[in-house]
Design a protein that fits this description.
single chain, 11 helices, 15% strand
């Protein structure tokens, strides 16, 4: 009888965890910018949930959210040290959002690659506050409880995050214009067409290539319309002729998967505003590319 009770309790715990899992992953991923690290957080959350006295937990989802958010903050604090030693620019690990465009959230905020990149400049507690409030619409009081701080301080954390994003990011274009700009950019990059490149790029555009130290990826961001255009034109004859492209979706936005033969070599995405393309993001690190490619729908 006791063993049966234990089994029923574990079955209920499993159902509660699986029901909350999409949102838990969405929170951890947005705070960390890494699908692999988010999965590690969820594994630890599950282990803790298994060993918790669940008879005293009235709201399993709230409990699981709290554990996940706090674990993600802890991982983000240690990840910050590792990323300081990262070779070259660091970009978030892309995720396929074709089946869940908002990835467990009530709103799609803090999912785009560019937003995750900007959130990386905030401290982990600010990121978590922003994610819980803006993407998942948690009341300030509940966010304060999760973060173990006051509601007033929580409002300040979210406000600072909003101001940071507003200062760093211009008004975005429509999805149709975003796709059009990326198409024009891709065609010009492939041919090294300086005139078209300079037409679609914002004056202060930045190109980031995350190769994790691999050969062929620029280890510093390239800044400015003229420098980026000339940089792209210079490597076009070497990079594009053997490559094939496939339109995909990453982090809720259209992206281009570049492959040589059957081997993926880069995922290209952009951040675009009314000024043109503001950020060009090349994910080339095989450790980030491989899981994304594996997750794509055939």
């Amino acid at each position: 009888m006791h063993a049966g009770d234990d089994s029923a309790s574990l079955d209920r715990a499993t159902k509660d965890f699986l029901a909350a899992r999409p949102q838990l992953f969405g929170i951890a991923y947005r705070v960390l910018g890494s699908a692999a690290e988010a999965e590690d957080v969820l594994q630890e959350t599950w282990l803790r949930w298994q060993h918790t006295d669940r008879t005293g937990v009235r709201e399993p989802k709230a409990f699981l959210t709290t554990v996940t958010a706090r674990l993600a903050i802890n991982v983000a604090q240690s990840a910050r040290v590792r990323r300081e030693a990262y070779v070259g620019p660091w970009l978030p690990e892309p995720v396929d959002t074709t089946h869940d465009p908002q990835m467990g959230a009530e709103r799609a905020e803090a999912l785009e690659m560019a937003v995750l990149l900007l959130l990386e400049k905030l401290n982990p507690v600010e990121r978590a506050a922003y994610v819980l409030r803006e993407a998942f619409d948690y009341p300030y009081g509940q966010v304060a409880d999760i973060l173990e701080t006051s509601e007033a301080n929580t409002r300040q954390l979210v406000s600072r995050a909003r101001k940071h994003l507003a200062a760093e990011r211009r008004k975005q274009v429509s999805p149709a214009d975003h796709r059009r700009l990326l198409e024009s950019f891709l065609a010009a990059a492939q041919t090294g067409d300086l005139a078209v490149l300079e037409n679609v790029l914002a004056a202060d555009v930045v190109s980031y290539a995350d190769g994790g130290g691999m050969r062929g990826a620029s280890r510093i961001p390239v800044v400015g319309r003229t420098h980026v255009s000339k940089y792209l034109a210079a490597f076009a004859p070497r990079f594009w002729p053997p490559a094939g492209t496939r339109w995909v979706e990453a982090n809720g936005r259209p992206a281009v998967l570049v492959s040589v033969g059957d081997a993926p070599v880069a995922l290209l995405s952009v951040d675009a505003s009314t000024e043109g393309i503001d950020r060009i993001m090349w994910v080339m690190n095989p450790d980030k590319l491989a899981p994304y490619v594996a997750s794509l729908s055939v």
